[in-house]
What we know:
Blueprint: E1 2-6, H1 17-23, E2 28-31, H2 48-60, E3 66-70, H3 73-84, E4 91-94, H4 108-113, H5 118-128, H6 131-141, H7 145-154, H8 157-169, H9 174-184, E5 190-195, H10 203-214, E6 217-221, H11 228-231, H12 233-245
Parallel strand pairs: 1-2, 1-3, 3-4, 4-5, 5-6
Amino acid sequence: MSVVLVHGNPETAAIWDPLQTELGRDDVVALSPPGFGAPVPNGFGATADDYLAWLVGELENIAGPIDLIGHDWGGGHVQRVAATRPDLIRSWTTDIAGCSDPEYVWHDLAQIWQTPGDGEAFVEAMNSMPLDDRVAGFVDAGMTPEAARSCAAAAGPEMGRCILALYRSAAQPAMTEWGRELERAERRPGLVVIATADQYTGGEVLARRSAERFGAEVAVLEGLGHWWMLQDPARGAQALNKFLDARD
């Protein structure tokens, strides 16, 4: 069996390090999407469809059964695999299920990235910041210093290009349509993680509504924010292990 972790934006696999320790498993694989702590292959367009194809290819090379866990955009990629290639996985977990609800509105920063001109200006400004300032910004947002430094060091023009392409490919109603695909799909056991202080994913009401549509279980992490796996890795691992152990 393999537990596969997929992170999001603007991150590297370092965000999983404390959680991996707390999980206490020897079957965990952390995958880094192209542009986010991993090189971008030639010709890679960095759209949501490109990332779906990338993740499918990675999973096809991993011995199953696979329990697939995604955070942030990693959660989006996981949901799309669950909808389109359920044969590749035993179970799936996401912490952005609320983004699939028809009432979800992209957060302000995503809307900047989705706007031609504004997105490019934001990425350029981000890349021009001194490394220590980027690190401080991530720490203020909820990362540990170690994870913040890894993510800040990975930022650059390549990540910026991937951010813009990915978010523009997911402008609404794309997220809603992908949620409908998952709702109609052949179902694998799913877990929706709800970090109640996460300001980016639509809130608990939308997440619970999506979980019901997808036939998924719910794990509520009261008071934790977007980087719950860094803020309280022990509590996050407890919720994940409870779900995973029930599959054994």
